[in-house]
Amino acid sequence: MSVKKKAHLLGFVQHGVMNHASTMWAHPRDKVGYHWSRPEYWRDLGRTMERGLFDAMFIADELAPYTTYKGNSDPVVKFAGQCPVHEPASVVPIVGAFTKNLGIGITLSTSFVPPYMMARQLSTLDHLTGGRVGWNIVTSYSKSEFQAMGKENLTPRDKRYEVVEEYMQLLYQLWDSWDDDAIVYDRENGIFADPSKVREVDFQGEFFQSKGRHFVAPSPQKRPVLWQAGSSDQGREFASKHAESVFGIFPTPKSMRAYADDIRTRADNHGRDPESVKLIYGLQTIIDRDKSRANDRYAEFVENVQIESALGILSGHTGFDFSTLGLDDNVVDADVQGIRGLFDAILEAKDGAPVTVREAAQIYGVSMGAPVAVGTPADVADQMEQYLDDGGCNGFMMLATDTPGCFNDMTELLVPELQRRGRFRTRYPGTTLRESLQEY
Name one Pfam family in it (predicted). Predict the structure, then answer.
């Protein structure tokens, strides 16, 4: 009898009024008794995920309102289309203080932060959480972000990956520059560390130069867990070389499997154990003990989608202005400078059949193109098992609908069903995020 593959679960949220379901902030079930910007919300969200033995809370980010749709940010401001979004790293100490095992993954762009500062920030956060920080490595792709940072020229995709490759090499040198036994804590002689075991980094690259010692003592994980969501050819190559966990959105088991096989082949080509790279796919769930109630709730969520808000976000994510098409026009392939995988997820949403702009908005507004599992805990678990076995993934990035309610449903209804089937852990394996991700 073959051993069943167990799932990893991560809660996908954002430090803003909206997470990843368009106009959900206006739904009467959303954030009842909470304000998304207050510590109490993040405290209880973290506690709920930890009660459900989630690997981590994963916090997405943008750096400026999207302006791709209609050439301005009015639609996303009007409908709170991932606007406003507050800074994500500030949440880490709050969640970390009220949890013991839950990892916290944050999205930070390499485009505007010097590597030396990035290394320092992430090492500090790893210390504050006792080794539970992960970093979603992104390179900014939005014109509005570059303009907000005082830069007029958007870096082309090919160039972005050249730059971030060098960025990572410098980070590795900084994180690894302290030997494990460098700190001696000799109180009697007043010696804190052995300077011979704390190397000065002298990095002279094409894009970055840095000379100095890493300013933070080695954190519990030494390096944060590295996440990436590469979907273009360059992105896949980068992810397979650097990432410990790769996030993707794919609408079908066939597209999931193709991506998983490709990433693992590339990882093997880089001399890595392919199974050490965890494939985590986006999934939206609507769970209720009563299937008809789950279906009714899903219908409400679909009806709640505001088309212009969804198109503002979709245009911002992909870099393609969907206002140039009519709502009943079919979406056709295009060379996009934004997130290639999200554009592909829309093209593939109906398994190869044409998708209109209106349909794209509805699909994206509900789940960003990720599959949606609706029904009883058993129904949802059935669908997850198919993705684990046929889709080749290792787990799921659970997209939020109404919060914190949807994560209560996952913790109280779905997790026990997965445990009953031998598909999910019954305890945490250790205290660090890396231990949780590498458990199975």
Answer: Bac_luciferase
